[in-house]
Amino acid sequence: MKYRVLIAFPFLLTGCATTQQLGNPAATRQAITQVLATQTAAWNRGDVAGFMQGYWKNDSLVFIGKSGLTYGWQQTLDNYRRSYPDATAMGQLDFSNLKVQPLSPDAAHVIGRWHLARPSAGDLQGHFLLVFRRFNGQWVVVADHSS
């Protein structure tokens, strides 16, 4: 019995260390889900700038889409405004099949599906992978790969 405890002890420590390395995964998931809900609400009221508040306001932000790579918060905002010039073009956004995976206390990724309901312009949909980082207590998207 003594040997079983000695053998299991390192695995127990590893499990505890992993939990400590991730911080509070449930709180991370909730905070990131809230960012996505806030973005969805902004988009659905035709507020692209409000939607962009969920992104890292930095030149190192990266967006990967059908047109390739875009670097920078302002350039990403400009691209959104060009692609979605008004509320009709924007439609109504819905995220589904979300899987929020904390990676550390200050990093996580999210995999999911997006759908734009646009009755007059035709619906759009696809999948995404978002990389989130926490800066000064605020979770923001630092990389977005949407297809």
UniProtKB/TrEMBL annotation:
Residues spanning the signal sequence: 1-19
- Tree of life domain: Bacteria
- Alphabetical list of InterPro entries matching this protein: DUF4440, NTF2-like_dom_sf
Which Pfam families does this entry report, sorted A to Z?
DUF4440
Which keywords annotate this record? Signal
Q: Which SUPFAM superfamilies match?
A: NTF2-like
- Gene3D superfamilies tied to this protein: 3.10.450.50
Report the residue ranges that make up the DUF4440 domain in this protein: 32-141
Protein name according to UniProt: Nuclear transport factor 2 family protein
